[in-house]
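Quick illustration, no need to memorize.
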Amino acid sequence: MHISQIRQQLKEVPIFKELSADEMDPIVEIAQPRFFKNKMYAFMQGDPLDRVFFIYSGKVKIYKTDSSGREQIVSVLESGEMFPHAGFFRKGQYPAHAEIMEDTQMIIVPISKFEEILVAYPELSIKLFRVLGEKIVDLQARLEEQILHNTYEQIIMLLLRLCKTNGEKSEQGFKLTTHFTNKEFANMIGTSRETVSRTINHLKKKDYLSLDSDGYYLIDHEKLHQELF
């Protein structure tokens, strides 16, 4: 990956978008491009937290495992996103696994060197806090979904959320750009694969969602939203 590509990709990340070329220079200097093949891990839960990743192309699944080995998917990240978001302000270990879902090109920034840049450019810290604030709001919304809504409603809310985070506009409403299995849906909200399967089949019968010829979900966002309200 050329320096110009690294610069361009970092400029797509929200916290860097408004920086001038001169302000970007020290960040580009410490950035390290790296290619990851499908099924590799960028890091494992419990590894020393010393780097932050920016996705140039590809997809990465972030998930946690408990003591019994059960998987809880936190998110599926795509091009232009960074992770872990708390990396710049957290010491210790990575709080989750980062598994590569398809061949992925990433830009890696060592936290220790980036912290020096944050000191030199305080406005970067402010932008970083704004991004973290958005993530906190999202996590609060997910917690409310768990507390205030039944499983059927949680599955619908998950599909609506994925339209925003892993979807693109289509004729039917939205097309999910990642292949998700019922087990993966279940692992995102802490329910069983069977429950998700029944709900998905029910929503298909109501023509709220379908699969295209390549196995991607097509979701009628408006009808699905109306199902909740």
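The chain has a mean pLDDT of 87.
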